[in-house]
């Protein structure tokens, strides 16, 4: 009796695991965010992000949600990043068609042989800050002298090193540099005087935390920030990169790039004009961070894009030059620079983004956002 | 020391459960105890942190973790409570890990068969097996994702979850291969020679002697493989950014670690439970083979 019960149990377990395996297999659908193709042959296109779904990429999700990609005949799949996914490598390997990456990191990959070209500069300004408590009186890079300064490493630190050097300090001896986790707990418990933070993410996380001294959330007035844009060592961040070889030889890829950029920029314009809706689209795409945090992020990303005098996505020569200068001269603690020689002429091109802008202007869309005004976002504890 | 009476068996089960619970309580007491008496800034010796900080951000109270687990994930409409989301993510991970475990077990067993059949194969392959487990997972993940991204055969296209399953199977096949080989080689010479006197060929010896004899070695190996598959799945999810599973959820919740520290512990607990559940499922599968499992039955 007992024997047969055991066998029944075991058989049930086998059946259960078989069901699990099948469910694992069937979970295949719905892993990517594929645009619903309403008949007609759409060209499949993959876009690789640097990180998980969040409002930093609101424009692409808005373009997908509003059907802008489908309007251009593209069936776009947005591929999320992971801790070990390097977008520019995925692009150079041909696993995806376009990738979003920071300019200095992508330039470093180019120097190592990745054949990629910046075809649209979405963020015109750097979002990186060095945040400190107001009572420490750290408002410029020169004030960092003798302080404990946090940085993330992994190539995120060069603006700061250039800023410290520019202020006449030696990063190796005049400041105490510490490796910072990807959160702001070091700043809040006082083990770091000035911590690295992105305006659209980590800075908001500080403002979502209860200040034990006041019993309210931390306010911007409780904090000082060093903005590398004003210090003059900012580097260009999120840009859309394309495959250089295909750009130079493949007519279909060139046309597709213009279409892709047209739809993506239209998505960013949608996010500018409808920040609440764009944020809701991102939340609906399964971001685990809360709604108020995503709205903050959408708004801050908008501030880094708009107003865009030459048109959204145009790569500004001066900003590019500053990025390359810092990338070639700023040394980190190991004494290395991001790149060793100036990038060749394939590193960026405004050809495709200009065509995309012309197409958008012909539609009567405002591509410069001269009258752009950011909204006011109220953060809640924990960003829920 | 087998207890044969039903009452003895029941008593042993209860005491096992009791000890298990005691372990959990002990862990809770350790956590809260250290939090109560430990210095808030932690213990730092020569600039190296020896003991963790005890403030609420670094070590939230267990009560906070539990109460956070029953609140919704975020304020968007229809957001499920954290524990429901964790269970959903755990089931997704379990499905992917099961695929990885199944592939890994089959491959591992086939390799073991090959190594048993051909001594030269054992000499040639075994060092490679050991070498394979020294390759760090984080080096492997991007490569598998990049290769997978190029596979497109007709309507079939490679999905991210398949990369995760492959990485899980890569971890799971090793204990199975080694354990199965030990098991297949476990029959005494006298038994092998008996089979020879029966004029039984390799296949018949395998079927009648080696396979039954391998069961006591195979079952722990399969359990180990299941645990490895879970670890592989969680790490690979983080590494490749596969959405929906528990590993990805750990990272996403940890992102709000500054402002909502208690939230991150729910998926970690979920991952632990997942490991236990998978080992339990394999143990149940093992029940069908109880007849061959003399050693495990006695333990």
From TrEMBL, chain A:
<keyword id="KW-0663">Pyridoxal phosphate</keyword>
<dbReference type="GO" id="GO:0046872">
    <property type="term" value="F:metal ion binding"/>
</dbReference>
<dbReference type="Pfam" id="PF09084">
    <property type="entry name" value="NMT1"/>
</dbReference>
<keyword id="KW-0408">Iron</keyword>
<comment type="similarity">
    <text>Belongs to the NMT1/THI5 family.</text>
</comment>
<dbReference type="GO" id="GO:0009228">
    <property type="term" value="P:thiamine biosynthetic process"/>
</dbReference>
<feature type="signal peptide">
    <location>
        <begin position="1"/>
        <end position="28"/>
    </location>
</feature>
<keyword id="KW-0479">Metal-binding</keyword>
<protein>
    <recommendedName>
        <fullName>Thiamine pyrimidine synthase</fullName>
    </recommendedName>
</protein>
<comment type="function">
    <text>Responsible for the formation of the pyrimidine heterocycle in the thiamine biosynthesis pathway. Catalyzes the formation of hydroxymethylpyrimidine phosphate (HMP-P) from histidine and pyridoxal phosphate (PLP). The protein uses PLP and the active site histidine to form HMP-P, generating an inactive enzyme. The enzyme can only undergo a single turnover, which suggests it is a suicide enzyme.</text>
</comment>
<dbReference type="InterPro" id="IPR027939">
    <property type="entry name" value="NMT1/THI5"/>
</dbReference>
<dbReference type="GO" id="GO:0016740">
    <property type="term" value="F:transferase activity"/>
</dbReference>
<comment type="subunit">
    <text>Homodimer.</text>
</comment>
<keyword id="KW-0808">Transferase</keyword>
<comment type="pathway">
    <text>Cofactor biosynthesis; thiamine diphosphate biosynthesis.</text>
</comment>
<keyword id="KW-0784">Thiamine biosynthesis</keyword>
<feature type="domain" description="SsuA/THI5-like">
    <location>
        <begin position="55"/>
        <end position="278"/>
    </location>
</feature>
<keyword id="KW-0732">Signal</keyword>
<dbReference type="InterPro" id="IPR015168">
    <property type="entry name" value="SsuA/THI5"/>
</dbReference>
Automatic annotation (TrEMBL), chain B:
<feature type="transmembrane region" description="Helical">
    <location>
        <begin position="161"/>
        <end position="181"/>
    </location>
</feature>
<dbReference type="GO" id="GO:0005886">
    <property type="term" value="C:plasma membrane"/>
</dbReference>
<protein>
    <submittedName>
        <fullName>ABC transporter permease</fullName>
    </submittedName>
</protein>
<feature type="transmembrane region" description="Helical">
    <location>
        <begin position="82"/>
        <end position="113"/>
    </location>
</feature>
<keyword id="KW-1003">Cell membrane</keyword>
<feature type="transmembrane region" description="Helical">
    <location>
        <begin position="264"/>
        <end position="289"/>
    </location>
</feature>
<feature type="transmembrane region" description="Helical">
    <location>
        <begin position="125"/>
        <end position="149"/>
    </location>
</feature>
<keyword id="KW-0812">Transmembrane</keyword>
<dbReference type="Pfam" id="PF00528">
    <property type="entry name" value="BPD_transp_1"/>
</dbReference>
<feature type="domain" description="ABC transmembrane type-1">
    <location>
        <begin position="90"/>
        <end position="286"/>
    </location>
</feature>
<dbReference type="InterPro" id="IPR000515">
    <property type="entry name" value="MetI-like"/>
</dbReference>
<keyword id="KW-1133">Transmembrane helix</keyword>
<feature type="transmembrane region" description="Helical">
    <location>
        <begin position="217"/>
        <end position="236"/>
    </location>
</feature>
<keyword id="KW-0813">Transport</keyword>
<dbReference type="GO" id="GO:0055085">
    <property type="term" value="P:transmembrane transport"/>
</dbReference>
<dbReference type="InterPro" id="IPR035906">
    <property type="entry name" value="MetI-like_sf"/>
</dbReference>
<comment type="similarity">
    <text>Belongs to the binding-protein-dependent transport system permease family.</text>
</comment>
<keyword id="KW-0472">Membrane</keyword>
